[in-house]
Amino acid sequence: MKSATRSANSPFFSAAEFAAIPPVGGVSKRGFDVLAASLALVFLSPLFLMLMALVKFSDGGSIFYGHRRIGHNGKSFRCLKFRTMRPDGDRILQDYLKANPAAYEEWRATRKLQDDPRVTVVGSVLRKLSLDELPQLFNIVRGEMSIVGPRPVVEDELELYDSAAVYYLQSRPGLTGLWQISGRNDVSYATRIAFDTHYVQNWSLLSDFSIVVRTIPAVCLSRGSY
Predict the structure, then answer these.
(1) How far apart are CA 11 and CA 32, in angstroms?
(2) Closest-CA residue to 212 (of 172, 174, 176, 171)
(3) DSSP 8-state assignment for residue 12
């Protein structure tokens, strides 16, 4: 991964100085995260149990899936989701990309596929409604993520951010954010990066509240989700 060495408002700084930068939003954002995520886990516990049963009994595989993502200051963590893919998903993906040049180009540009052969029937429904991401509430309580922020990326994906990676690394990745309420997969990756950069540069607690409220209709309408 390229090292992020350019600050938002100053020239260059050392790796040690970069590591000491607190996440955007500070104590007020963290307090909101802990309170909101904890309450959500309590009130959504019946839904959690139902979804756990659906995933488990659909094919007998594991319920949760943890994928390594890059967080604040470049620290990696296991980003939790309800499992939506077949257990042999890596092999299926590689075979599919080799046989489909157009799909390979789509994957190379966005790291996503609109018609992903790895996704299970139950998984497709969970993804459409963004319910697969609910376990990330545990990531938020643990301090690895935030309610609002850039969506978590893998190490190779951060390369696409180029110099804008510094803004991503100044924040905790979010369960929701500007990308989610602005079309998600219907917008280009460059636009997603611009959303993340704008969010970090212009953060406020009021903007977080606004994004959370606007997430509800975006999820209900399944805008840009697959």
Answers:
(1) 32
(2) 176
(3) B
